[in-house]
Amino acid sequence: MTRVISLMMLLLFSVSLKSNENAKHSLEDVDNSLKYDFFAFCYHDVNSHTLGDLDKDSGAVNVKHLAQHFQWLKDNGYTVVSLEQIIKAKQGQYKLPEKAVYLTFDDGYSSFYTHIYPLLKAFNYPATFALVTSWIESSKPIEYGVELKSNQDFLTWKQVIEMESSGLIEFASHSHDLHKGIVANPQNNKQPAATSLQYLQEKSLYESEKDYIARIKSDLETSFQLLKKHLKKPPRALVWPYGSYSEQAWNVAKSVGFSQSVILQEGKNYLHKSEHISRALIIDNPEVSGFSSYLLPSSYKFPKRVVHVDLDYVYDPNATQQEKNISQLIERIHQLKVSTVYLQAFADDDGDGNASALYFPNRNLPMKADLFNRVSWQLKTRGNVEVYAWMPVSAFDFGEDFYQKHGVKELHNRKVSPAKNNYKRLSIFDDTVRGLIKEIYSDLAKSSYFSGLLFHDDAFLTDKEDLSPDALTYYSSYGLNIEPNLGLSEQELQLWSELKTKALTDFTLELAEMVRFYNPEIKTARNLYARPILQQESIHWFAQSLENFSSNYDYVAIMAMPYMEQADNPRQWFKRLLDVLDRYPEYQKKFLLELQAKDWRTQKYIDEHTLIEQMKLLQNRGYVNYGYYPDDFTNNRPALDLIYPLMSLNAFPEDINNE
């Protein structure tokens, strides 16, 4: 042990000289008035043989680089704080210093004792070590991802006890045996064990929610009791494997005895904003310049480039053909190098926009195929994109009788009757409808991995809707009493429009919260027709508002589709839309313009050169978030080689044929 410490001290001396020389370069760039309370880092294995950023273990860091990171923090005025100090600060018993940093190390490698612990002692830095207790207990080789590791690669209880006694190290649970993937759909995709319903292949069904909760509770109780047995005090923190967590799983963890939740995100933390501590994941063995960039303030956000995909194009009753379709889609998305896919989660066989079935297990509508989770996961892991679940808000088809009773009502020929719009929207003011739709969204979240929600363009109400009894009661609660056959004043019409806009938005936000119980980090986007942007009076015809959407969603997916709007001059129409959007610079980063790749009136594809012209115009006008719909990957429309230079997020796009 003395030899290891001596080696570390020698290393520290050389590091100090180098970091003084190189690390100060970014100090002037660091924002001393940081708006967050503390920043947290997540490390994994540390060794002496990892070189550069091409190691097969992308999470491994060279010990020399780790020492440089520690020295940079010291040289630049950062204070490393403990979990205890963070907890006391949350309780108002301690004030965190400016530029506070929290260090964590996951998985319980033996290097925690041989490399990291000596460095922490040399700098007097506290840290949290997260242990997978089954790995410490095991006398056999350990499955770690796709490889087997020796149990000698991980800590022993003796080492854990020694490090705890130093007062610098607090140990947390990284679960007992949840640091693995489990089969989570019929196609055998493995997904994080802590947050996935297990697919039981021998029974051809998913474990029940009750069995899922029991499985998670049993695992966490085992880990909690083992740590309590070997440590001086019970563990406080649960560090989620892969950073994958849900509010449902966290409720289970709290019932076991954990009081602190540690996840993976961007690393910025606010004491009173969340129960969960967010950490930035250190990857690719960064040198000082790369490490310091984690802490530098930046307003830059990577552009969103979106491909909007119909899962109906992927589905095939022939399983072999369906897998070919999935592979073809993944390969196309991979080659395009976009950021995001909006993926249809509902079935729409007749193309009327109403969901007659769904592509995920659920309680309320037929499941056409258990396909959404499969394709979403493949897009995430192989296509390297974020996937947004594209879902209707109220256009769910429960049959004609149900629609007659619970659908949106309109004034037609001086009579209130079910609306005759193409979208057979159910009334969101109806408690029965609200309950059914919330269950659908909840089932989507339970069964699938995705990064966001795209609310479909069915979320509108015309200037003659909704006049259902529950809707009238809602308006009345805000002081607007509507007699369907009597006219409304301009002021009352304005209030009616605002109330409908609010109700639609509030309902979508409730749906998002349902999803966040199982998938807390999702983003939201909502389709907005262009007409309410271009014609102020048409806000009344849609109950949609650019300002309302921009204030409530992460992105506004503006339907920049002149052919759908039957514009006489599509080019002029498109420029006029941008002229109006220019009036809202404060919202511009939220605007995502969806271009039209097919003219549904003629059933012909829009010429790629038209799309390219529109994309170039968007870039020249400063609109960097855009995409198109639909993508016909089976027929290569739009043509990949033509749109690639304008869609790809590569800094220096090359001809795809040369990749």
Give a written overview of the molecule.
With 659 residues, this protein is α/β, with parallel strands linked by helices. It folds into 2 domains: 2-293, TIM Barrel (Alpha-Beta Barrel); 305-393 and 428-460 and 496-531 and 542-658, TIM Barrel. 37% of the residues lie in helices and 18% in strands. It contains 22 helices and 31 strands. The strands form 9 sheets. Strands 1, 4, 5, 6, 9, 14, 15, 16 and 17 form a 9-stranded mixed beta sheet that branches. Strands 18-19-22-25-26-27-28-31 form an 8-stranded parallel β-barrel. Helix 7 crosses helix 8 and helix 14 packs parallel to helix 16 (490-516).
Task: Itemize the secondary structure elements and their pairings.
Blueprint: H1 2-22, E1 38-43, E2 46-47, E3 61-62, H2 63-75, E4 79-81, H3 83-90, E5 100-107, H4 111-123, E6 127-131, H5 133-137, E7 142-144, E8 147-149, H6 157-164, E9 169-173, E10 181-183, E11 190-192, E12 199-200, E13 205-206, H7 209-230, E14 237-239, H8 247-256, E15 260-264, E16 268-269, E17 276-281, H9 288-293, E18 305-309, H10 311-314, H11 319-336, E19 340-344, E20 346-347, E21 357-358, H12 372-381, E22 386-391, H13 400-406, E23 409-412, E24 415-418, H14 431-447, E25 452-455, H15 469-477, H16 490-516, E26 523-528, H17 531-534, H18 539-542, H19 546-552, E27 555-560, H20 570-581, E28 591-596, E29 598-599, E30 604-605, H21 608-620, E31 626-629, H22 640-647
Helix pairs in contact: 1-2, 1-4, 2-4, 7-8, 14-16, 21-22
